[in-house]
Design a protein that fits this description.
The structure is a single chain. Strands 8-1-2-10-9 form a five-stranded mixed sheet. Strands 3-6-7 form a three-stranded antiparallel sheet. It folds into two domains: 68 residues, no CATH class; 147 residues, CheA-289, Domain 4 (OB fold (Dihydrolipoamide Acetyltransferase, E2P)). 24% of the residues lie in helices and 30% in strands. The chain is elongated and about 95 Å long. It is α+β, with helices and mostly antiparallel strands. It has seven helices and ten strands. The N and C termini lie far apart (87 Å).
Length: 230
Amino acid sequence: MSDQHLREERTPVQDCWNQVGIWGEGKERCPRLAELGHCRNCPVYSHTGRRLLERVIDDGDRIEWTRAFARPPEKKVSTIRSAFIFRAGGEWLGLPAGLIQEVVDMGKIHSLPHKSNKVLRGLVNIRGKLEICFSIGAVLGIDRFEKPTTWQRYLSPERLVVAAREGQRIVFPVSEVYGTFRYAEGMLQQLPITVSGSKAAFSKGILCVEEFEVGFLNDKILFDTLMRYL
């Protein structure tokens, strides 16, 4: 190291920009500000910056920086989940795919005497076993939707979906089945403030699937609500 560098190392930094410069809070101002407009245009500021960057690194800082740069980068873990996408009425909805046990052809729904209503539709025969059938569209207040015969986005005919959660098993009819959609946790968007009522109460958020939006349902709230209709 040259004698000049040694002298500069021993000379304290005079941060005039924080005293009489652009960042100073006192009434006194550097007379060169009127000419230069800003401290970054001043050769004193530039020279001091180079001096700080070129200063000798002490052993403690060198060891700390070496450890920091030698440390392998942290791997970002992205949780991948699966959603079962279907259409009820005119709206696309989703549930955790792990809850879906099977999807079968649409069958006859047998009403229950003195029990059936818009939500509790009745009983259906699933592989020789009678299961309780609910209407998710009725719970969410979704209007019935007549699919035009010329509709191009026809994915499937009406189906019956069998789902189970913590020992509670339900069946519900759907207008169409899209299938399974894998998504990262960060893809689930918050509900727009314009969504309110039942749809907001039963939804966790919005998933964008291809060119349409899917209301991802809170399965716990949905199942608890349906069980109260029994």
